[in-house]
Amino acid sequence: MSHATPPNLEEQGRWLSVLARAEAEAVKAFTEKLLPELERQGLEVLENRMGLVMLPATDTAQGTRFHVGEVLVAASRVRLGGLEGYAVCLGRDLEQTLAIAILDAALQGGWHAERVRAFVEQQAAKQSAEDARLARQIAATRVTMETF
Amino acid sequence: MAYVAARGGEAAIERAEALYRRLLGPLDPGLVKGLEQALPHLLDRVMSEGSLYAPELAALALAQTGGDLYEAVLLLRAYRTTLPRLAYALPIEPEVLFTVRRVSAAFKDIPGGQILGPTLDYSHRLLRLGGLQSDVPPTVPEPVSAENCDFEPQQVPFVADWHRQNGLMPPRPTDPTPGPAIPDLTREPLLFPAPRAQRLQALSRADTGGVLALGYANMRGYGAIHPTVNEVRLAYAEVRLQHPATGAVFSAGRVRYAQAEVLTKFRPGPDGKPTLELGFAASLGWNEVKLIAAAMLDAAMDLPEPHPAHTEEFVLSHTEPVEASGFCIHYKLPHYVTFGSDLDALRKARAQAVAEQEASRSAEVTE
């Protein structure tokens, strides 16, 4: 049964970002387990394809926006119980984006939301730990020229 | 120019490609994966010049071409034309880059400190011959402890902001142009003078060697720029998109991104007082040599009377890797009509010379 409320955009942006960065096989395996029950809500794949995203950047000298290049992505859009799930990930893995789009719709509709949120938080913690570790390794390379 | 269509030789062409593959070795997923993991800087160069961030495909392009960079770049550029553009990402905001390296040659105590990051810049350039006999044990960088770490990779200040705060440089204007309205040289021809957006896009996908050659010429004195590297920054940038149904902003992942700024001589600012001026360049991937040279060229192109080799038309037209390499190697293709015409002209000139010599000799005999 759906417990749909309009998604908090910040929260939705966070779960999509975390899932896009999560290890693809883990996301697929997790979604696979939920799929038989989610499919009962009526699952329709609207889009599942590779393509390009143009990436603009900002010139820090004169402030001009310019295109720094394109990025290869996989993108999926699904309809689950009348709600639209969407996902884009770098690379070519259409199963990964399909799995995330399904989870996006599930979270919006409140289907298995507790389990999905727990999975998202688990992945987020892993990513934060990776970032923190890298930050501390980078910090170790900071020099003062007196000791250089 | 005159070309002649050539037919025939199909079997020889097939055998030539087969021989190329045989000498190159097999193309398999293990090789591609290995290249992707072992050669990130080379991948960055192919992706930057190919103007497509796709590490797996850049590795495939390198494997397929045996490491011929221009061919690999061409494969990537050609592949991108087969795919639809699904969206424009939100612009990379410099202030929230996940910075892994940021150094400045301007002065030592820059805000945020000199962060060497992942680099071999200060290491001995000695071959580690031991790697030929046995595995070189991996070195794990020692992190600072969590309690002592005050470093925030997404809050590394910009050196230029210090100049601006101290009135040495005009404020950085903001540009509200939305993605689809930004000039795009993959869809519009490059005309001169080019919009700054196209210039920076052209530099981001320019040939590393070409940019370095022109930039180095400037450094050696064929130009009027005497640069100081204000900062070089290596970072990860989020590719931020919007959910089509709800509008939520999310990241589809991170790409390696780098940028360089060089300071040039004083210039009159908007208020008439002398100010510092910056040259700028950025690219997908981490390629510091290219970016420093490109930032210098950006500054050189802005001079009222640049050296002829540093005008915008000269720089951008001659550092386009696919056009330049393609034009160069096209000379290997049949030019039979051109050369036949040259031979005709040569024979006529020789016949004319003989006729003139004979006429001259006859005149001498008559006299």
- Tally the structural domains of chain B: 2
Q: How many domains, in number, for the residues of chain A? A: 1
Q: Determine the most extensive contact between two protein chains.
A: A-B, 63 and 91 residues
How far apart are the first and last residues' alpha carbons of chain B, in Å?
A: 47 Å
Q: What Rg of chain B, in angstroms, do the CA atoms define?
A: 27 Å
State mean pLDDT of chain B (0 to 100 scale). Answer: 93
The structural class of chain B is alpha+beta
Would you report the number of β strands of chain B? Answer: 7
The helix tally of chain A amounts to 4
**Sheet with the most strands: spatial strand order of chain B:** 3-5-6-7
Chart the SSEs and their pairings:
The complex is a heterodimer of chains A (148) and B (367).
Chain A: H1 9-21, H2 24-38, E1 43-58, E2 65-80, E3 83-90, H3 94-109, H4 113-139, E4 142-143
Antiparallel strand pairs in A: 1-2, 2-3
Helix pairs in contact in A: 1-3, 1-4, 2-3
Chain B: H1 10-24, H2 29-38, H3 40-50, E1 52-53, H4 55-65, H5 69-80, E2 85-88, E3 98-103, E4 114-115, H6 159-165, H7 196-204, H8 208-220, E5 228-242, E6 249-268, E7 274-284, H9 288-301, H10 312-318, H11 321-330, H12 336-366
Antiparallel strand pairs in B: 3-5, 5-6, 6-7
Structural account:
Chain A is built from four helices and four strands. Chain A has 148 residues and is of the alpha+beta class. Chain A has one domain (9-136). Chain A has a three-stranded antiparallel beta sheet with strand order 1-2-3. The model of chain A has no long low-confidence stretch (mean pLDDT 94). Chain B has 367 residues and is of the alpha+beta class. In chain B, 41% of the residues lie in helices and 16% in strands. Chain B has helices at 10-24, 29-38, 40-50, 55-65, 69-80, 159-165, 196-204, 208-220, 288-301, 312-318, 321-330, 336-366; strands at 52-53, 85-88, 98-103, 114-115, 228-242, 249-268, 274-284. In chain B, strands 3-5-6-7 form a four-stranded antiparallel beta sheet. In chain B, a hairpin with a 6-residue loop joins strand 5 (228-242) and strand 6 (249-268). The longest helix of chain B is centred in the last third of the chain and has 31 residues, at 336-366. At the A-B interface, helix 1, strand 1, strand 2, strand 3 and helix 4 of A face strand 1, strand 2, strand 3, strand 4 and helix 7 of B. Strand 2 (65-80) of chain A pairs parallel with strand 1 of chain B, so a sheet runs across the interface.
